[in-house]
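Notes to self after the Tuesday call (sharing in case useful).
The group wants a holo model before anyone commits to mutagenesis around the pocket. I volunteered. Ligand is FE2/S2 (inorganic) cluster. Logging inputs and output together so the record is complete.
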Amino acid sequence: MPEPLAQRSTVVPTLPSLLAPFEPLETAVESWDDSHRATVAALRQATDQLHKEAFARLIRAFKADPAGLEILKHLAGDEVVYAVLRHLELIKPSLQERIESALASVRPLLQGHGGNVELISIELPDTVHIRLLGACDGCPSSNLTLTEGIETAIRSHCPEILTIKKIAGAHPPSNGHHQPAALISPFSLSREQGWEAAAELADIPDRGLKAVELQGHSLLLSRQAHQVTCFHNACAHMGMPLDMGQIAEGIVTCPYHGFQYDLTSGECLTAPEVQLVPLPVRVTGTTVEVQIPR
Ligand code: FES
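Result:
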């Protein structure tokens, strides 16, 4: 029987408490076979589509009235409303989300060298502070890593960012003008989000390449025993596809002008200041999955 209005709890659930049931359910679904996972994905997509249309109609109605527009702006600041609208792609990614996406795009390369990078803070309107971690911190070439890799990624995802500062040590700056890194949609942070089956492990030749088209992206998969890497199928010189290039000793040579790349790291051996653009990749059972940026 429904709880009488007067007796209803006034405790407002937090976003983490609302999201808590998702993780064990998603973990359970991940263990199912492909057909069951596909059914869940289709159900999720249809549900999202329904919710998206309903919310889009509500938003249109709010926007038609200046007072409604103000209410809408206020509501978008609510963490639950923001998270759901962001998940349904009715709100564009925040600056912080785009910076995190940029860092995620270079993380596989950094991790391949025992390093990493984290966002420390955003200094509006145009500056970000990051910190290099692990082998990248203190590495003699870390300035080059920062300038040519991380900086390029941030600028391509966030053209409004003009200055990228590397923070040394363990503590972020604290002059009161920095926006802490905290307002990212938790949906976009899900490590389980965006993974797409790209190939069977056995279909990628050892020390060779396999080109795949996935969600509109042309990708290169490479394998050395059980280690798989994934890069955009685009030469860093002029963006030409690399899948027809010659491969020898784990190195691919671009068929157009001869740039060479190490397939375990994406490093360009011809012009060290550029590199292939990596994507996160994992092997689940016998299936190679790639995390496609949203
Ligand atoms: S496009 Fe690859 S070397 Fe020029």
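Two things stood out.
Residues 170-191 have pLDDT under 50 and may be disordered.
The chain is about 35% helix and 25% strand.
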